[in-house]
Design brief:
The structure is a homodimer of 357-residue chains. With 357 residues, chain A is α/β, with parallel strands linked by helices. Chain A has two domains: 2-271, Spore Coat Polysaccharide Biosynthesis Protein SpsA, Chain A, CATH 3.90.550.10; 276-356, no CATH class. Chain A has eleven helices and 17 strands. In chain A, strand 16 and strand 17 (329-334) form a beta hairpin. The longest helix of chain A is centred in the middle third of the chain and has 17 residues, at 118-134. Chain A is globular. In chain A, 52% of the residues are buried. Chains A and B meet through strand 15, strand 16, strand 17 and helix 11 of A and strand 15, strand 16, strand 17 and helix 11 of B.
């Protein structure tokens, strides 16, 4: 059976002032009326029933996530006492799933990405699953067709076609510089790594154990306690001491070189929505080239983007300006400077304005 | 005795979204913690006691103004059933003052201007008053030393010095084009017309009667009814039919040509605060060149201006941007486009968003 694991540990500081330390991007309605994690779970609901859907998140967001996802059994929202990157999170989920379903297959998804063309995603997932059916030891990923040389994403280098959208994934490459990214996009063999993974629970657990044996031992004990009163205290004792390492670094780079990774390549309108600029690009402009969630009045202004749930925004004589309004703060940012929103949170810390973080 | 008349009929659409049809600039705390009309009346309080201070305003703002100025007798807040420009307003005040004090002198002030150097204003007012003491038929104005060729103000051309800051005012000139304004400023004989006037009540009433005899007849009847139950109904019957005309056009242009106007010239840090840009120029920048009423975080931004009473404003990668926040609307405007804020209110009307007007 397929089990879904939604990784919801992100902090989303680049979405200030909408996202805050206590309200990261995944629990906010960044696109549309539902929160990003609600969208993610809804997207998977045709594939995996709620009782086989797990969410891994931090202690400060667990209650909010349980409230936002009432269909998911509360215990399936697994609380990390401290974030340890993706490898321990995946290892723990794999151990729990393996215990419940020894032949279980896991589908791992980030909780805060956008997919605008679900059918394209489902088709790619089918191809990956088929590959895992044929070869139980295969590790599967989705490779996203790159539309431009993004330097903020990791890339997957592919080689031989395996039939349909499935290709061999050879190399997992970290965020490139612009010249390298341009070369990747031109070659046609490189895809964006969207952080979606598919594999048998027992297989990924073994793989993680090869480089992180301590993690595997610990998560097997935690899985034994899952669903009991001991689980939370055992998590608090052991989880924070696990090595903080990404699944790409712990497993995928090596497995790719070993020829064991299948990538299903797709163009599902994916974005990691890593900044207000990413979101800007996802919203269709009106006839004057402006984009708004709420009411926007533009006078001699084009390329404006307003994320405004409550207040009307008026822009006069300015192009390419992003305006974000919340109950206690307003961000006004040039669209090409969205990465620097992080500096606002740094300045808030410097000035002791921690209530805005 | 001196009587003060504060003209508070302004609409202030250029201060959207702070000012609205129901809350014009004069009843708002645009600069500092007090409202502009409170600042104006406080500025006059050393000169004229509250029982000799009159405010003329529209029906929709009278209650608010009475509440903001509890020291002024309620009946001294005179309600115009319809705005008829400055000549009828001044004629009515003059008739009321003349009835109470046949030798009364009037000092007329706009309610929504800024004076940052009060002592300079007081000195100029003393000079004007002295001139009226010497020549009971004189009409007095304050001429503001121009610091730059503003095209949004009227100008006063002066000639002979009358001693101290008093000069002869020869011509009252309407808003000039830029080349003309530059010539005015260079010549040194031209001053901004700040709309502050000083004269005996009986004299100005006669002067208005020369060009507007119907107005004089009507306001003398109204003055008879002032303080009685008949006043409001008589105002409603007669006032709206008076000719709508400015005091400059009705009296000052002709009186200037006749050599009867004294101007006391001064540099009292005056501004009519006609736009957000005017206000921008009145606020001292911080070390990064930014100006804010509330909390402002600027990242690679200079020349920002935030009028924010409640929300923190962050500006990233933008220069010379004005950000105004209110409970239901946010304005983001390039500082050189502040005059075009009026277009926002026009667009709001077009789109039927009248709740924001």
């Amino acid at each position: 059976m397929i089990h879904a694991v939604v990784m919801a540990g992100g902090k989303g500081t680049r979405f200030w002032p909408l996202s805050r330390e206590s309200r990261p991007k995944q629990v906010l309605p960044v696109v549309g009326g539902k929160t990003m994690i609600q969208e993610t779970v809804e997207r998977l609901s045709g594939l995996v029933p709620p009782e086989r859907t797990y969410v891994v998140t931090g202690a400060s967001h667990a209650d909010e996530i349980r409230a936002q996802l009432p269909e998911i059994p509360p215990r399936n929202v697994i609380v990390e006492p401290a974030g340890r990157n993706t490898a321990p999170c995946i290892a723990l989920s794999a151990a729990i799933i393996k215990k419940i379903d020894p032949d279980g297959v896991m589908a791992v998804f980030p909780s805060d990405h956008v997919i605008s063309k679900q059918d394209a995603l489902y088709k790619a997932m089918d191809a990956v699953m088929e590959g895992i059916d044929k070869d139980r030891s295969a590790l599967g990923v989705i490779g996203i067709k790159p539309h431009y040389p993004e330097t903020g994403y990791g890339y997957i280098k592919t080689s031989a076609t395996l039939g349909g959208p499935a290709v061999k994934a050879e190399e997992f490459l970290e965020k490139p510089d612009l010249a390298t990214a341009e070369r990747y996009v031109q070659s046609g063999n490189y895809y964006w790594n969207a952080g979606m993974f598919f594999w048998r629970a027992d297989v990924i657990l073994d793989e993680i154990g090869k480089s992180q044996p301590g993690t595997t031992t610990a998560v097997l004990k935690l899985a034994e306690a899952f669903g009991t009163a001991r689980f939370d205290s055992l998590m608090a004792q052991t989880y924070p001491s696990l090595a903080s390492i990404s699944i790409d670094y712990a497993v995928m780079e090596r497995a790719g070189a070993e020829g064991r990774v299948i990538a299903a390549v797709a163009d599902p309108g994916w974005s990691d929505v890593g900044s207000w600029r990413s979101l800007y690009d996802l919203v269709e402009p009106d006839s004057e080239g402006n984009r708004a969630r709420g009411k926007l009045i533009a006078v001699d202004s084009t390329g404006a983007f307003a994320h405004n749930d409550k207040r009307l925004v008026a822009v006069v004589g300015l192009n390419d300006v992003i305006v974000i309004e919340t109950d206690d703060a307003i961000l006004v940012c040039h669209k090409d400077r969205a990465q620097d929103v992080r500096q606002v949170t740094e300045k808030l810390k410097e000035r002791g304005l921690t209530g805005y973080l």
